[in-house]
From TrEMBL:
<dbReference type="InterPro" id="IPR004839">
    <property type="entry name" value="Aminotransferase_I/II_large"/>
</dbReference>
<dbReference type="GO" id="GO:0030170">
    <property type="term" value="F:pyridoxal phosphate binding"/>
</dbReference>
<keyword id="KW-0032">Aminotransferase</keyword>
<dbReference type="Pfam" id="PF00155">
    <property type="entry name" value="Aminotran_1_2"/>
</dbReference>
<comment type="similarity">
    <text>Belongs to the class-I pyridoxal-phosphate-dependent aminotransferase family.</text>
</comment>
<dbReference type="GO" id="GO:0004069">
    <property type="term" value="F:L-aspartate:2-oxoglutarate aminotransferase activity"/>
</dbReference>
<comment type="subunit">
    <text>Homodimer.</text>
</comment>
<dbReference type="InterPro" id="IPR000796">
    <property type="entry name" value="Asp_trans"/>
</dbReference>
<dbReference type="InterPro" id="IPR015424">
    <property type="entry name" value="PyrdxlP-dep_Trfase"/>
</dbReference>
<protein>
    <recommendedName>
        <fullName>Aspartate aminotransferase</fullName>
        <ecNumber>2.6.1.1</ecNumber>
    </recommendedName>
</protein>
<dbReference type="InterPro" id="IPR015422">
    <property type="entry name" value="PyrdxlP-dep_Trfase_small"/>
</dbReference>
<keyword id="KW-0808">Transferase</keyword>
<dbReference type="InterPro" id="IPR015421">
    <property type="entry name" value="PyrdxlP-dep_Trfase_major"/>
</dbReference>
<dbReference type="InterPro" id="IPR004838">
    <property type="entry name" value="NHTrfase_class1_PyrdxlP-BS"/>
</dbReference>
<keyword id="KW-0663">Pyridoxal phosphate</keyword>
<feature type="domain" description="Aminotransferase class I/classII large">
    <location>
        <begin position="29"/>
        <end position="401"/>
    </location>
</feature>
<dbReference type="GO" id="GO:0006532">
    <property type="term" value="P:aspartate biosynthetic process"/>
</dbReference>
Amino acid sequence: SLFSDLRPLGPEGPFSLETQFIADSDSCKVNLIIGAYRNNQGQAWQPPSLVEAKKRIHVESCLHEYLPLHGSAEFLESSKLLVLGPEITNQAYDRIASIQTISGTGANSLIAKFLDNHTHPANIWLPDPTWVNHADIWKENAPGVDLRWYPYYDESSRSLSFSAMIQTLQRDTQENDAILLHACAHNPTGLDPTKEQWEEIALVCKEKKLFVIFDSAYQGFASGDLDHDAWAIRHFFTHPGLEFAICQSFSKNMSLYGERLGALHIVVSRKSSSPPTASVHGHLAEIQRACVSMAPLFGSRVANEIFKSEDLHLMWQADLLLMSNRIKTMRKAVYDELVRLQTPGNWDHVVHQTGMFSYTGLTEEQVGRLRKEHHVYMLPSGRASICGLTCANFKYTAQAIHSVIT
Ligand code: PMP
């Protein structure tokens, strides 16, 4: 066969662990693998705003026509407003090119291909560590761009390695390089820069003439407050001349995981009297056409329903608070239990990190023992999805961690 030389590949990391988890028949098993919200019963959950939006859509009578190439114009207006806020959206009305994408993954892939085709950065700088898919997205979509890593996580202090990050960016980046920044709730570390640190990062990006890509997969889900989680992105706008892209996902904050709803927005600078927004817009659609034609319809219908009705918007904000608060409560619960058990080490990071994940600091060997001896599953890097904890299993999980450490 033409394919005999193909190297056999199993399912990728988290997906292979998920298969093992499903096959595990132990009644105490705990799933801290996949980044998807679970309720206190450990079940996938539909937020009330989503349930109500679907009722209002009258699914039975919906047509299933193609969306335009750029996606739903109504959705793009609202998603832009959500991430940039009304003031910036107004000010930059003629210099934001937006396109609906196949969720955050599609937005990341599209910007990689777009830059590789049109602006030719020598390097893309990714945080070390980052979401497992980032490196593959760039390798697959931007073969002309080299992958480089900037330090992000200091293992000994379990904190942001901020000075090393800044030093690397100052010393090693070239003009026109692209840099990926997580807008909030950094995956996998749960560590975000402070406002002062964001200000410094923006200055370096500006000075070194880098093109910034914000990956915004957790707006509102991280803190429960949509504006708070968009602060860094909006701050970058205050630096005239900085051009940047936003890869926006609605998987987590609207619980639309499988519907693949997202957007890519590119903020173009106003150096000339007529910013090249229309050209950017046109080329984005050209690439998207060749890859997938256009994004799927249903998710944008649901989101439009939530965006256009004040009562649903408020309901959605309450859902975001509920989800983020449950995660915070579980962080505190497992932390208190580890302290009560006098588990060796300092566990403060579990409560200080934000978003869905905790970068626990457990070694690959300890994670392996957790799985084999206690049926508690997390990524080999020690990343645990806090959403998998419930009032019924956090004590068991803390005890399991305690026993692989002592
Ligand atoms: N970026 C980051 C940082 C993520 O954590 C995720 C989801 N795990 C994504 C992008 C993309 O998710 P989706 O394609 O479902 O929007």
